[in-house]
Amino acid sequence: MSKRLDPRNWASWRPFGLGLRKPNNYLELWKAFKSVKGNRRYAWRILNQGTCDGCALGTQGMRDWTMDEIHLCNIRLRLLPLNTMPALDVSLLGDVSALAGRRSAELRELGRLPYPMLRRAGEPGFTRVSWDEALRVAAEGLRGKRSGTYLTSRGVPNENYYAAQKAVRALGSNNVDNAARICHSPSTVALKETIGAAATTCSYTDWIGSDLIVFVGSNPSNNQPVAMKYLYHAKKAGTRIAMVNTYREPGMERYWVPSNAESALFGTKITDEFFGVNVGGDIGFLNGVLKHLVENGWVDKEFVDRRTTGFEDACRAVAAQSWEELEALSGASRDDMLRLARLLGEARSAVLVWSMGITQHAYGEDNVRAIVNLALARGFLGRDKCGLMPIRGHSGVQGGAEMGAYATGLPGGLPVTPENAARFTELWGFEVPDSPGLTATDMIDAAHRGELDALISSGGNFLEVLPDPAYCREALERLPLRVHVDIVLSSQMLVPGAGDVLLLPAQTRYEMVGGVTETSTERRIIFSPEVEGPRVGEAWPEWKIFTELASRVRPEVADRVRFTGTPQIRDEIERAVPFYAGIAGLARFGDNVQYGGRHLFADGRFQTPDGRGRFSAVTLPALERPDGTFMVATRRGKQFNSIVHERRDGFNGATREAVLMSAYDADRLGLPDGARVELRSGERTYEGRVLRAPLQPGNLQIHWPEGNVLLDESRRSPQARIPDYNALVTVRAL
């Protein structure tokens, strides 16, 4: 990597970008230092000895396997208090009416959950109980009942996911799901179908020196800040960066990498080419790019003929789509599509990266298929500096699905079929159900209809992550039993239930004896050791909570469900998931193994039945936007998942109530910055304040989770069942 200064990539000649709008990364360091007062030595050990529990880039302490530099992002710093704070005063839970209406941040700041707590129907709050009593109550409410289990990805390691899904299946159900359902489940569906593997095909090192990186509906400056250092080095190596998005994200225009002297001082220009598209217009744009590749002969014909199928069908599909249709849907011009097609056609190597802007649609699977088509057409798979990357926002989400914590998948990502269920029946020694279970959204639907008796929620907060919070609240209220497993309080725990509500205190990954592992975006399985430090109350590791619960419900299978510790779980994972070979040997800081190697398909074969990549004939979604309406998308600000860290986003100055609107639309409607407006979608409304931003006209953005009140809970993609986090709205000045 070049260490020479390169003014061509500088964002500004102002030292440290003084006077420019951007996050103050050094202030973030100071805030992090203050936030762990009393536990700073422990926090320092977590940073230096632990695997990051933030995004899924993956680290060993403050280093990784992409570059030989120290790095530390604001997300990880902001998560430190959760891992180091003392216990809350449980007397505060005696009457939770005093906590009603508090923001999630305020609830978290009360401290860690130290003991099992129980609230009976009609009681004002929670009472401390023993683990034995808590497990007895939970077992009585689960035995012979209809139940569902949801696990979030906040720092949850592979061992917890694996043990939890095994315990749920020991209870006789496949009703187990995790946060992958509401982020990358369309990627899982489409990638398995087209290339046979539901994971990124390359490594982060492939970014640096690639001819081209294309980000589609992805904003790593907010969600994976360490990745911006990779992009700094990529720019130094001559890589061009293109962005396909509705909003010209300021952090992707220019970024100041705090741990790099040149970038910290002068900033770095990131995006070379921007392509604006409508919310929901990605397929129109991407199909137009494929159409240009075909018409101009920019297809890698040797790769297509030798390693793929379905190319002619894909060609016929885009040939039948007129440029007028593609332009109307995408909001981009035919020339814009040609511009990206030429970039791809001239590139010898490219990495295509996408995230929630692509997946969280009612047709998210087709969005991903359209991206895969471009990679297959140019042969950008199985070799250096090339690949498909569904970048992950949370450290546990890749491993969660691969461990089988998925209603539609068993360990190893195997679909739930009689044949695969029989394999695990033999491995585990108890009957495994052979039909798919309820997804996360299906569980809430069932609870709302009164067709679910119990819900176990490990982390997460349905009131904040799913569309229509009022609908979710009603569903939670109707459950005879709720079991919340977490490290801190959340607002969904305070919702009164039709029966018992249990709070069970969990350990963080850094507290678990025997250490744990996570799987990063680049398929790297990384060991995270137990870190010496204070321990909170009677918190248990989640793998133990779930296996003990299953043992209480079904004592006859207890000996086949319980584990002696995380090393034994890793031994079983290696037997259950063959491509995780090597996980059983991970035992020390820095130990890791990257399954599949640097590139998947380097041997020339895809993991499909015939060994060929599959093109898809992607049809255009039927999207209509009547005159006077806007498409609104939900965006992330200064936050991690639904954990909001600041009211104001340092990149664009947007507060949480901001309604981002193009200057063209704001002028047309006579709305100055700060004007109060109401967005309406049917009977759903949201009030906010206008903030002019570089958006495509006809499109709006509001923050998630605040904007979830506008979303229709019934709109989901057909295969992945991911909620649609977008809505058609009208705007009215208040």
From TrEMBL:
Where is the signal peptide, in residue numbers?
Answer: none
SUPFAM superfamilies cross-referenced by the UniProt entry: ADC-like (SSF50692), Formate dehydrogenase/DMSO reductase, domains 1-3 (SSF53706)
Q: Which residues form the Molybdopterin oxidoreductase domain?
A: 112-551
* Keyword NAD in record: no
Q: Where is the Molybdopterin dinucleotide-binding domain?
A: 632-727
Alphabetic keyword roster: Iron, Iron-sulfur, Metal-binding
Please give the superkingdom of this protein's source: Bacteria
Q: Which NCBIfam families match?
A: Fdhalpha-like
PANTHER family according to UniProt: PROTEIN YDEP (PTHR43105:SF4), RESPIRATORY NITRATE REDUCTASE (PTHR43105)
Name used for this protein in its record: FdhF/YdeP family oxidoreductase
